[in-house]
Here is the input.
Amino acid sequence: MTIEAKAEQHPAAKDRLADAPISQDAGFLLAKLHAGGSVVNNRALAEFDLKERSYSVLILADSGLEPTQRELADFLSLDPSQIVALVDELEKRKLVTRAPGKQDRRAKTVTATAKGNQLLAQAAIAARHAESEVLSALDTNETAQLKALLRKALWG
Here is the structure.
């Protein structure tokens, strides 16, 4: 169910509340888009027994950048204990492996396995479809612009 479809269930509230001052607040808008998008993403990823967070760890583990668990926690804005639990789950499923870091052997890098790479290839298609569903009100250029603006706001 898209964000728009949910709003259509209660059209009077949607129309009435969209004019409230909070609808001009970037933090509110980002949180609302994320909340609705998470529902759609998690539904799309369920067939792969993944959720948004485990998918995020898997895609970063498959990036070739060999992120450490600490880097994953920082990048994903999660507590390190949450990352450990996510990596434990993915490692139990043989989708990722941990190894001592090259710079600091105490730090554990997380890398996708061949099985993880194969699952990710399929899950990424579902995630792209979910993203398209969530952003269906935007055309291709607007979607690219939104992503560019978000990256700029995050990393300059």
User: Anything to note?
Assistant: The chain has a mean pLDDT of 92.
